[in-house]
Each structure stands twice: as structure tokens, then as C-alpha cells.
Amino acid sequence: MVTFNSILNEGLRAYISSYDKQALIVSFTNGSELIFMGENYDTDKDLDRFKGLEINGGGIDEINECQEATLYKMLERAGSWNNAEGRPPIVVLATCNPASNWV
User: Fold this and answer.
1) Structural domain of residue 15, as residue ranges?
2) In terms of DSSP bridges, do strands 57-60 and 91-94 run parallel, antiparallel, or are they unpaired?
């Protein structure tokens, strides 16, 4: 959230209609939303919190600290929101640092 908060004053704030800091959902003036959520693999090995999530894209920060299953669940859910006007492109992005794991 530090990076997100730092870019609010760089012009992003003008496009935000609401920011629910409890639910971690940012709503934009065009109807788009950013939903911030953690992986929580230790308590949710089936990644149930992703079920029913209708998104056209997503981002994973520090994917090298996540389970490989999380990436596949994100790819599964991306493109599942059929009501998007103009069908925006399906995009899943991730950041990582060098690691000797599955990434």
C-alpha cells in the first residue's frame, strides 16, 4: 500500500471516486475497481477467497513469496467479468526479486 499511497498525489487521486480503507477497495470514476487482497495460503490452501472473483486482470506483488497455485488461480479468474464495456484486455502482471524457487 505504500507505493499506491505515494502515487495518489501524482494525479491518480483525481480519478478515484471512493477508497474503502477497511475493505481495501478503490473505486474509480469510470466504474473500475482495484481490490487489494493477500494470498493467505496457510489458512486457505484451496484459495477459496478467489472463487467468484470476476476480474479482467490482476497484479501480484512479490510473486516469489506466493504459492504457484496463486498465479494459476489469478490466471483462471482473469477475463471472467463479461460485463466490462469494450472488453478491456486480459492482463496479469507480477513483480519479483531473484529467488531459487518456482518463479
Assistant:
1) 1-36
2) parallel
pLDDT at position 48 is 94
Q: Looking at residue 90, what DSSP letter applies?
A: P
Q: Is 90 left (phi over 0), alpha (psi -120 to 50) or beta?
A: beta
Check residue 88 and report its DSSP letter.
Answer: P
Q: Alpha-carbon distance 18 to 23, whole Å?
A: 12
91-103 confidence digits (pLDDT tens)? 899 999 888 888 8
Domain total for the chain? Answer: 2
Q: What is the pTM of this model?
A: 0.77
> If you ran DSSP here, which 8-state letter would residue 31 be given?
S
CA distance readout (Å), 98 to 58, 61, 62: 21, 13, 10
